[in-house]
Design brief:
By secondary structure, this protein is an alpha/beta fold. The protein contains seven helices and nine strands, in the order βββαβαβαβαββααβα. Strand 7 and strand 8 form a beta hairpin. Helix 3 runs antiparallel to helix 5.
Length: about 200
Amino acid sequence: MIDAQDITGLVLAGGRGSRMGGADKGLQNFNGVPLALHTLLRLQPQVGEVLVNANRNLAAYESFGVPVWPDALTDYAGPLAGFLTGLEQCETPWLVTVPCDTPLFPGDLVARLAEAAKRDDADIAMASAPEQDGQLRTQPVFCLLRRELLESLVKFTHGGGRKIDAWTAQHRTVVVPFDRPTDDPRAFYNANTLGELRDLERR
């Protein structure tokens, strides 16, 4: 097994929040706690270290008590910019990424990604989960990555690449289904609007 201490967790909170009217999504409350802090507290027991990727309101994120790093790429380049920042700052052999807007993600997320990566000798393990139509779909922002992929990601992003799937397709990637009978079907629901966030609170 890959030891949890060999994995750094990265909370992705660097987006524009355009579908939330420009609000900083990670600082919106979920059951009375900022989304990004809720995510951090859910991720922390699963990994050795935790970082936050944010691009504004840095003092608010720093108050969570973990290192906060803005994108190395400019102009809100999307989740891969966060991946890049995380790999640059990661001091462990592995990095796992989790978005701040999916507060119910599994408590065994990292263990299952790590088990699959070890079993298949993969460079990347990516979650997949059933959506409302019952079809399994990849959840590319829930990714376990080898730190050695930094050079590849620098090259891809500096060449203009922005799509996670296009980059992960270049490497040995295992897709890990979260569709066991005991898995929460809401685990990967994300809140893009304040209305969706309130709906998640009521579930």
